[in-house]
Amino acid sequence: SSDLQKRKHKKMARSIRHLFFIVALIPFALVSCDDEYQDTKDAGEAYIKSVSDNDIYTLNTGLKYKKYFEEDPSWPDVPAMPGFININYTAMFINGDTLACDSAKYKTYQIVESISSSGDTTWKDTTVLVKPTFYYSNMIDGCKQAIKRMKVGSKWRLWIPYNLAYGSDGIDDGTIKVDPYTALIYDIELIGVSAE
Q: CA torsion 158→159→164→170, rounded to 10°?
């Protein structure tokens, strides 16, 4: 029984040493993850900082935007608590490569016009305007900050620092992939909005 206890103590001491070793390595692993994207972060920050012109506005959050044309004061404002947003948009990396884009399109669908007593169906084509729709609260912070300031009908270019885009985590959801610390550029035309 004494041998058994000695082996258990040795095994436990070895496990504790391994645990301390692993815990000691965690800070180095975290630093190396951030270091991997340091160039991306630096390039994005330098690019956003370099964007300047008389007609470019900068918010205290770091978001920059430019209006493509002057908005008509009679255009509808965005509600205080937006629900669904309809936008035409293009999202780009700072090198100009397109990340994603979508715009309103006319689509033709077949709908039932009538069904006879014998069960024969008559179909007719109908064309509808399908607008890209997003739930406001699911949008990245940079887009949300801009949309709250826009009017329906506005078209803006946004320069979005990484902390207002996908942050230090980035995103890779199978649809889009954005590395951590990536600054983005968005062209947004606000074509509709509903209150929550």
A: 110
